[in-house]
UniProtKB/TrEMBL annotation:
Pfam families: NAD_binding_9. SUPFAM superfamilies: FAD/NAD(P)-binding domain. Residues 5-168 form the FAD-dependent urate hydroxylase HpyO/Asp monooxygenase CreE-like FAD/NAD(P)-binding domain. It comes from the Bacteria. This is FAD/NAD(P)-binding protein. It comes from Winogradskyella rapida.
Amino acid sequence: MKQLAIIGMGPRGLYALERLLLELSKQQLEIGLHIFDATHCPGTGTVWDMSQPDSNWINITERALVGIERRQAISYAGCTIPEFPSYHDWCNYDQGFYAPDTFPPRQKIGHYLNARYMSIAKALEHLKTFQSYNEEIIDLKPKGERLDIIGNDKQWVCDALVLTVGHQSTVLSNQLESWTSHVAKYHTPQLFDATYPITQLERLKNEMEITVGIRGFGLAMIDVMRYLTINNFGNFKVIDPSTFETVYYKTQAQGLKIVPFSLDGLPLVPKPLNEAIDVKYQPTDEELEHFKTEIEAVSQSDSAVSHLDFLMRPIAQISARVYLELKDEAQLHHLNRSELESVVIHWLKHEDYKHHLLLDHKTEVYQQIKTYTGMALGDTLVSLDYCIGQVWRHCQPTLYKAFSHAKVDESIIKEVIALDERSKRYSYGPPIESMQQVLALVDADVLNLDYVNNPKITLTPKGWNLENNAETTISCSAMVNSVLDAPQLLKVNTPLIKNLLEDDLIQPIHSALGIETTSEGFVKTPHKDDDLAIAVLGRLAKGSVIGVDAILECFGPRIETWAKAQVKRLSSN
């Protein structure tokens, strides 16, 4: 009997298991299934861990989670795996067109994912060919046509394997390396080189007097900010439910100061309040089909391409049409469609491009947040960059599908990913309430945005001195790194990936990207005529695929393609 291992049982591993079982049932094929997961709650991974605090929110609307569909019942090896409801049915989702979108805590999604996995495990619990191990896998070794799976003190053998391990830690940057050495020398400063688990920061949140620096100004920064400030001394209160306008109130005095900073100091941009506002940025079906055709004409062709016009041009066409149709809700202008398209392309090429329809980056950060929040609420005239960002979000699923496994030069793949990453300030933006909390904390003199734009940092025996362009300084005795490591394969420092690299079992598609895989998810190596029996789905394959960070991508067609191909391989061997 063939043996297959799934290493990593987060949401992507969960869907891989489901689709595999479905394809096996179609072929009436039974195999040995081995599930390896190092966490305590299978199905969730670390991102959706059920034990994390409620202050960690998702940044995708519950409305958009319609993409997590029901699982049909599966008959496998004499067992019946019951159907499992879609996320919307599971949580009794019911929201009106004009009602504000909801953004629940991440642990709520975790409870759904874990329940979905456990329904499989329970159905197969008496099946000797289904085994689950709470183990970290540190190495894989070819053994003839099979693979040895090596844990810390155990070993297994399999015929095929899929890696769905998600985020992996990487070697520390030069800056973090120097900070680590500094803290080891002086002991007094407190450094947290990763954000999660966020409960590690518990000892900071109720300090009477402390200034905490946060390296990064993105979604993880908001999690840190919220966790630290919902404490024994204060909390948030929404004073206007229609706009989520918020105040931070203190029940007793506390000298907590939070000082975030990043390389560009640009704030996150909140998503639209509700479906009624969001639908205005929605491309038509015809526009999305044209967008897909334009991308695929390049990505699936062997013709050389040296620029991103194939991506920017259709985005500009959709954005210009949307902006014109906003009419009185948009900034006043007299540009026609082609002129608007030109502005969009200029901005996509150069983020610092200036135009009166684009919100000026040099505007005070606090005011930028207020202005973007007003746009999200439908209360402020919409800038063109806000419009582009929301259009990009709606185009992302099509882009991710059409450009994955592109045949273009690796440098073009890197540029597409870089542009998509730049868009995420808008397209992966947080709920309005999160940005209202940022404003509330500034108003309460808890959050300090004076150093947000690339401050000069000096290490002192007591911690970190931050200096801004106005030459004012602030001292931090604690520092939290909230910058998430990029999936750059050559910098990953977890034992499994390092060992696979050293043994030439995997290779990056580009020095700054992830593992090179086939369109079916199987690893490519330079030394073998045939692909290995190792598949990689998800974040570690960034470059071969794009769009690896969205939860909806965990339940997408890439996993279905892999499952069909994997069962075909198992059946033919």
